Amino acid sequence: MIDLTGQRAIITGSSRGIGLAVAELFLELGASVVITGRDVARCTEVVARLGDRHHGRVVGYPGDVGNKDYIDALVEFSSTTWGGLDIVVGNAAVAKPGSVSSVSEADFEEMLRCNLYGNVWLARAALPHMIDGGGGAIVLVSSIGAVRGADRMGAYSLAKAAELALVRTLAVENGRYAVRANAVAPGLVGTSAAAGLWRDEPARFASFEARNPTGRMARPEEVAKSIAFLASPAASYITGHTLVVDGGSSITLDPLMGTHA
């Protein structure tokens, strides 16, 4: 039921982790994708590797999503390259530890620019292309921290929660144009970005595993499948929704993330 044949997609933060898993799955499902990331060498390597299997359907455009000029250029490049734009996945993120009251101004500003402003700019730039093409899908990758309180990552969670309001607003404003907007809120995922949470504190991680109904953290490809569903025609009547992908951790206490009942 999930078929992306002929769909043209931008996936931010797709040179590693969840974003890379999304790119790989989208290509397998028939889409053409633009790989992005701040590491130029890594983007180049990923495009070359994926291009060996999906020749002509993957290109790269590295840069910083916290820069509006880059976002505008990324969307223009993508639309020109593929002749249109159907799907945008806002996955790139910056996560800095700290509560709302303790985080530095510089770290908070960086998280807002990447996690919120970047996705606002991305949607604003992409929408005209989607509307001209008869519709499209926007999927933002938020966090379980957006729907639970988190003292260790409070400022990050605040920025990610704003993404959920963004998809609801985009859904209401653009449903008439056949543009859908949704979000996924992953729990702990086995990526290099989250390694500090599960490698450096084994006792807390063991407690997380014991309390999570599935007994484990997610694999990036599991989150990618949820994103592919929301981006596909299989989710044609779903918009403004946040899909929690956490193995059930949000229905239990999660000591690893420092959340509270």
Polypeptide structure, described:
With 261 residues, this protein is an alpha/beta fold. 45% of the residues lie in helices and 13% in strands. It contains eight helices and seven strands. The chain has helices at 17-28, 40-53, 68-82, 105-132, 154-174, 195-199, 202-211, 220-231, and strands at residues 8-11, 32-35, 58-60, 87-90, 136-141, 179-186, 242-245. A seven-stranded parallel beta sheet has the order 3-2-1-4-5-6-7, sandwiched between helices. The longest helix has 28 residues, at 105-132.
Shape assignment: globular
* Widest sheet: strand ordering: 3-2-1-4-5-6-7
The number of strands is: 7
> In terms of per-residue confidence, which ranges show pLDDT below 50 for 5 or more consecutive residues?
none
Intertermini distance: 37 Å
Helix and strand pattern: EHEHEHEHEHEHHHE
Rg of Cα set = 18 Å
Report mean pLDDT, rounded to a whole number. Answer: 90
The percent range for strand residues is 5-15%
Count of helical segments? Answer: 8
Helix fraction, binned, reads 40-55%
Largest sheet, in brief, is: 7 strands, parallel
- The secondary structure category is alpha/beta
InterPro entries: NAD(P)-bd_dom_sf, SDR_fam
Family: Belongs to the short-chain dehydrogenases/reductases (SDR) family.
Organism: Aeromicrobium wangtongii
Protein name: SDR family oxidoreductase
